Amino acid sequence: MRHFTHLKDLGPKGQAALLKVASEFKRNEPGALLKGKVLGMLFFNPSLRTRTSFEVAMAKLGGLSVALEEGSGVWKLETEDGAIMNGDKAEHVREAAPVLSRYVDVLGVRAFSRGMGQADDDVDGVINAFRRHAKVPMISLESAREHPCQGLADMLTVEESFGQTQGVKVVLSWAPHMRPLPKAVPNSVLLHAAAAGCDITVAHPPGFELGDAVRAEAQSYAQQSGAKIRYTHDQRAALQGAHVVYTKAWGPEPRASEDGIVASPALRGWMPTLKHFEPCASDAIFLHCLPVRRNVEVSDEVLDSEFSRVVDEAENRLWVQMAALAWLFGKA
Ligand code: CP
Predict the structure, then answer these.
(1) Residues with C-beta less than 6 Å from any ligand 1 atom
(2) Mind giving me the DSSP string for 171-221?
(3) Atom of ligand 1 nearest to the CA of 289
(4) Are 284 and 306 in contact (CB under 8 A)?
(5) pTM of the full predicted structure?
(6) CA-to-CA distance for 271 and 160, rounded, in angstroms?
(7) pLDDT digit string (tens) for 32-43?
């Protein structure tokens, strides 16, 4: 049984193959490949793009989808083994996952980081608990560690913009925010760009390092794909010749209080403006997974500029997810 909860389920070759399928589906919609199949989606956190694009993907493939929101008309769920369930959680994943598996043919889960640090994110407890107890293929709708469908959509957007991903200079640049946001998206940008053979620079202020396990996994993909990976605290130097400026806010490590992250004038300079694009390549593009807080993470002038491909990037969620769903059923 196939799952797609982390990039390691595909690896570099699998990602390349799935991007080809997604491009083909975008050119020629495949019709009712998944006729009669049902996708169940369980959201522990809100969504605009993920929920809509998965529902539309299943409809285009001839199937159905059911979306459930934990704690909102659905029992609050316990995922820890051995928990004494005398709190507000009425159902355990050990029952919920196999029961849902009797109704649906593929199960998606969105469960963000608990904010307990990189080691806890790496365990990815909620999605892995579902993966252990579900009896059907699982797909990630974003978990504590990764957002693999976002990573695929990002690489499809890079490929469409530059005709390839190999050697494309991608700068993942930290951005300010009022809150220490999770690292699933920056982790996935690094992992998927490494698997796609990009020339990646991760630029962030001191104290905002990505986790060791994610960095080691990215390096292992780079050895297979020929990607180059650098880390720097010098944003301006990183942007020299950049083809892709990918901005994302994420929290410090170890996790700090929520104060002071955006308040520091030194850190506010990390928010991209048009000036940040001056050292970039003339055909540079700007990416962000969305949602984005305008004039906190990214300036209006960048989001409204010709550099921005954020809407194309969001559209590509649909095509890569159609490809991923087809792959889970052996149809791609
Ligand atoms: N990028 C993304 O996953 O968007 P949503 O949170 O709106 O689903």
Answers:
(1) 47-50, 142, 150, 289-291
(2) EEEEE--SS---SHHHHHHHHHHHHTT-EEEEE--TT-PPPHHHHHHHHHH
(3) 1
(4) no
(5) 0.97
(6) 26
(7) 999 999 999 999
pLDDT above 80 (res 260): no
The pLDDT tens digits of the residues spanning 55-113 come to 999 999 999 999 999 989 999 999 999 999 999 999 999 999 999 999 999 999 999 99
Closest C-alpha residue for ligand 1 atom 6? 47
Q: What is the 3-state secondary structure (H, E, C) of 281-305?
A: CCCCEEECCCCCCECCCECHHHHCC
291 prior amide bond cis, ω within 30: yes
Atom of ligand 1 at shortest range from CA of 53: 8
Contact status, residue 78 vs residue 91, Cβ threshold 8 Å: yes
Distances (CA, A) of 158 to 29, 165, 285, 310: 21, 6, 9, 11
Q: Is 123 helix (H, G, I), strand (E, B) or coil?
A: helix
Q: How many residues in total does the chain contain? A: 332
Label residues 151-168 b or e (16+ Cβ within 10 Å = b). bbbbbbbbbbbbeebeeb
Measuring CA to CA, which residue among 69, 70, 36, 41 is closest to residue 55? 41
